[in-house]
Design brief:
The chain is built from 22 helices and 13 strands. With about 450 residues, the chain is an alpha+beta fold. The protein folds into two domains: about 220 residues, 3-Layer(aba) Sandwich (D-Maltodextrin-Binding Protein, domain 2), CATH 3.40.190.10; about 220 residues, Periplasmic binding protein-like II (D-Maltodextrin-Binding Protein, domain 2). The strands form three sheets. Strands 1, 2, 3, 4, 5, 6, 7, 10 and 11 form a nine-stranded mixed sheet that branches. It has a two-stranded antiparallel ribbon with strand order 8-9. Helix 2 links the parallel strand 1 and strand 2. The longest helix is centred in the N-terminal third of the chain and has 18 residues. It is globular. The termini are far apart.
Length: about 450
Amino acid sequence: MKKSIVLLLLSIFLLSFSSYIFAGGQEETASSEPVELEFWTRQTQSDRMTTIQMLIDTYTAMNPDISIKLVPVDENDMALNMRAASAAGTLPSIIEIDAEIAVALGSEGILDTDASSALLDRVGKDKFFDGALRLFEAKDKGTYYGVPYHGMIQGIWYRADWFKEAGLEPPTTWDAVAKAAEYFYNPEKNIYGILLGTMETESYDEQCFTPIAMSNNAGLFDKDGKLIFNSPEMKEAVEFYARLAKTTPPGPQTWRARDYYLQGRMAMFFYSTYIMDDLAVFEVAMGSLTSDNFEGLKGAEFDPDLVKNTKTATILTNKKDAGFGAVVSMAIPKLNNPDVTEAALDFLNYLYSPNAYITYLHMAVGGMMPVFEGVANTERFLNDPKGVYSKYGAEKIIEITEGLNKIESFGIVEGNRIEAASTIYSKKIIPQMIYKITQEGMDVDKAMAWAEAEMKKLIN
C-alpha cells in the first residue's frame, strides 16, 4: 500500500512538473523567506484528504520555500468558521467554497477580489464556462469573489423501470413528480416516493427547493434587490414541497437517505451527479447497502442493473423550465501579507494545471465536473480510476458538463447579482422554514412570515 502511494506521488510529480507551464506556473516563488499557507478544503473524507495532500507534497517539492497546511472544514460550517476567523484575525490563505458562500463572504469584505482577478488572468478567463463564472461575479460586474474549480448538476434521479411498469410519465413536471411520489409511497412495505431535504441545518434542503421555486417563477428578490419572498408563487412552491415531503422516509432527512434508493426502496430522489459512482460501482455503493444509517433498512445486495434502470430529469417544469446545480471555487481571503497572497496564487495556479486538475476532479467521480471547456472530452478525464464514465459514455458526460453553462440561482435576477440572497443561503433560513413546516407542523403562512422576518433582519 505504501509503495503504491509513493509511486502515485512520483507519477503526479512528473506529470505536474511537465505540464505546470500550461497554467503559467513557476518552479519557485519570488519570496526568499519561507511562506506558510493554510488551505481550508470542504473535502473532509480521508481518501480525498490523502489525494489533496499528495498534490500539496508534489507542489512543495517543487517550491521548498512554501509550506501548506491542509485543514478539512465541513461545508455546512464553512461560513460560520470563516466569519469567526475573520473576527479573530486568523483567516486561512485559501478556501474551497461554493458560490453562495463565496458571494456571502465576499459581500462582507472577507474575500480578495483582486486576487481572484489575478488568478483568472494566470489561468485564462476565456477557458471557463460563462455560467459557472457568472455565479461568482460581484455586484461590481467584472470582479469575482472566487474562481470556479468544479461543479455538479442536480436533478431528479428515478427508477425508469418502475415508471415504465406503472405507466407513469418521467418526473419532469410538478404534476408528474407529485403523481409518481404519491403512487409509489407505501410505508407499510417500506417503500417511499421521493427524497428531498427536511433537516433545518442542511444546505441540501435549499438545493432541492430552489428548482421547485424557480420553476414556479418564485424568487427571493426582484431585479432591483427588493425582497419579494412572501409571494403567491413562493407559497405555491412551499406547499408543493411540503406535499412531496409527506412521501419521504420518516424523520428529518438529508442526502444520506439515498440509501433507500440504492436498496430498492425509493422511486425518486433529488441528487447531484455525485451519485454517479454510487450507482455504477459496487465498492462505492457498499456504504449505502447496510443497515448502519437507518433502522428502517436491513441492507441489500448491490444491484448491477440499477445504473441502467436509473434516469435523470435535470429540468423541472411548471410555469417555466428550471435547472439547478452548484459550482465550487477556490478563493483567497483578504490577507495583510502580500507574500502569502502571492504564494497562494502560485499554488492555485498549479492546481489548475491539467494533471493536477484532473487528479483533483477524479476524487469524486461524477460529483466534480470540470468548469473548463474541453476537459470533459479528453481521454484522461474520461478514463477515471473507477471506470464510471465508461458506463455512462462520453456523450452523456459532455452533455452533463455543458449544463454548467445554464446554472441559475436566487442570487442572480435578470442578470443582476443580488448579494443578500447568498447571505440568506448561508444562514439557512429556508431549511429552517422547511423544518418548521415538515417536522414541527407549522402552518405554511406562519412559517413563511417567520422566514421573511428573518430575511429582513439580515438585509437591514
